[in-house]
Each structure stands twice: as structure tokens, then as C-alpha cells.
């Protein structure tokens, strides 16, 4: 796991206290230091607000002593036991660092869990594919499974998959992007060995595809990112051996415009992009300088960009594979040249990140795909240390449900 700029977030040592939320009532904390009542807006079974946790840091740090006598009962067996199953980690903000100084981290227990679909005959194990949701189905397109692919598969439930039978369409490729725009599916760019593409294709059924005949636009590339924002399709960054940081947009797929971005993120590929909170976001990637980035940038127009977080807590990585769900950005997995990981991080702001501790989910991987479909987050295939994957995982991953709040003390 990548090092955090808030070291106490990842410690799993001595338990300091427990707080239970009870239907909006103020609930006392029984501590060695004495009884403390902390005002909050936690409601049992409802979503927690990050600020509600942060606002309690000062009071907790001032009142909590080394509460060894409660460790065994609360942690279920001794000092240094595991985190509560399914805990979500809430770290300190710069404005509320008192708990960090006192040596504590906070964790919210949740009921989130992942399940693997019992998939039958479907797409081969692969990486560098793209995925989207269209016509109430999930779609998986292209990628690399030892050979370069241009097959197109769809499913309405994640278990039963169908080959769309596309012919006469875009050449086999990997590292392309795909988006839904103007009631069509679009495939943009990509790579096949030493060949790089900047063609743009669209389909309204997945079987019959049309070349948009894009002209005077972005150069051939792969491992770029694409979003739909402000009534336009956007292509950002990518690589053709050398990395790019140009930003282009189109409202028809044929005519493209350079957004003229300046003073923004370094040239990179393998970054993640989403639309969230009325902005476009670029996160992580490989820029050859760090070389893996943990920066988070946002823009409302594609020209002017703001650095939201220069050192995100999920650490340097490329292919972080983000999605937006339940009012948060979710970062799913990634790679940093040393480690494949299966970390899950969330943020409702883009600059304050919380790690979801979710045992028993998908294995560490990168260059996978993820979508939100039927109220669930889905993770599809990718590359792991042992090779390519074609497994399909999902979680309903609802809002953070407050079952219990814990503070863990450093050794």
C-alpha cells in the first residue's frame, strides 16, 4: 500500500474508544478520562458526513486516554487485532490535525461487501479493454488477451454475456477509450502493437459501427482518458511513446477543438478521469517524472485547471480506474511499478480521501475497467500479477452506513 501523508490512517494497533450512533441522539463516550458527550449528526442506518467526523477530532483527542482495559472487548481479541470488517477509514484534514498529533485514526464500520458473478461463456481474460453502460446493458470492448481484440460483449446482469457480432468496424486495439454520447457508443483512439490510432467510431446498437471521419484533431495515442461533459466529448493526455497533456473536445465526433489547456497537469498516460461536482477531473497516471502521479486536478472548461490535491492519500499510481457513485469519487485499484493493488478509496470533495477496507473482494489489478450499473459498482477483468483476468465483481456500495465509530491509537 502506498504511504500516506497522514501516517496514522493505516495503523491497525490499539483501540482507544467506541462510539455508537443511535437514531440521531447524542451518545456518550465512556472513557478512562471520564464521560464525554460529543455533538454530531450521525443517525443510525443513514449516511455519514465526513465533516461530522472531522468536527469531533479536537474533542476526542483532548478526552481520550490509553484505554487498554477496553481493547479486548471492543476489538474482539487483544492489542493489534484486525480492523472491523468492512471499515471505512476517515483520515485527518489539514484543518483538524489534532487527532493526528495525538496519535489516533478514525474508522467507520459499514456493511459494504463485494460479490463475484458466476459468469459462464463470455469475453476472454484481458487488460486494456474499455467498458461503458448503454441501453441498460454493460458493454466490454476490445483489449489485449495475448492477442489484440476488437470483440464487443454486452450483459444485462453481469452473469450472462453476449457477443454483439460486430463486423466491419474499428481495427483490433487496446488502450482506447469509450463513452456514451448523443445516444450512441463511441470508441476513441487506442493502440495495436506499434500502430497508434486517432480514429473515432460510433454505434447505436454495438453491431453496426460508423467511422466519424474525425479531422484536424488529436494525434494518435493510447492510454488517454475521455469523458462526456458540458455537451461535448473530451480526450485528454495519453501516449505514443512520448506522453501528452493536450485536451480536446468535440460536439459531433468529427470536428475537434484544442481546449488550449495551460499550466495544468504534466504530460501523462494511464490517468483516470471522471465528471463530478460540475467539473472534469484528472487523477494519477504515469508522467515519467515522479514517475507515477498521485495528483488530482479539476476543470470547468478544459482550459484552466486547478490542482485539488498534490499528494492524494491513495498514493502514486497509474490506471487508478475511477467511477462516481453515491455522490463520491471511487478509486479502484491501480499499479505503481512495484505493486498491483486492490485498494478502494472514496472522496466527496476530491481532496480528502478515505480508504474503504473491504475484505474478500477482487484481487489486486490494474488496466481493468469499472462502471456503475443498476445501482452497483462493477469491476471487470484487468491484469494481475498472475496474468489477465475476466472475472466480474459488483457491490451496491451505498452511502457510508454508521454502525460504529472507532478510534485506533498508535503503538
Quick tags:
411 residues, mainly beta, 4-stranded antiparallel beta sheet, Neuraminidase, 30 strands, 2 domains, disordered N terminus, disordered C terminus
Explain what the structure shows.
The strands form eight sheets. Strands 1-30-5-4 form a four-stranded antiparallel beta sheet. The chain has a four-stranded antiparallel beta sheet with strand order 6-29-28-27, with no helix packed on it. A four-stranded antiparallel beta sheet has the order 7-8-9-10, with no helix packed on it. The longest helix is centred in the N-terminal third of the chain and has 7 residues, at 57-63. A hairpin with a 2-residue loop joins strand 27 (369-373) and strand 28. It starts with 13 loop residues before the first strand and ends with a strand. The protein is mainly β and 411 residues long. It has four helices and 30 strands. It folds into two domains: 7-112 and 401-409, no CATH class; 115-395, 6 Propeller (Neuraminidase).
Judging from the principal axes of the Cα atoms, what is the shape?
Answer: globular
CATH third-tier fold name of the largest domain: Neuraminidase
Q: How can the largest sheet be summarized?
A: 4 strands, antiparallel
- In CATH terms, the superfamily of the largest domain is Kelch-type beta propeller
- CATH architecture descriptor of the largest domain: 6 Propeller
Tally of separate domains: 2
Q: Work out the radius of gyration.
A: 23 Å
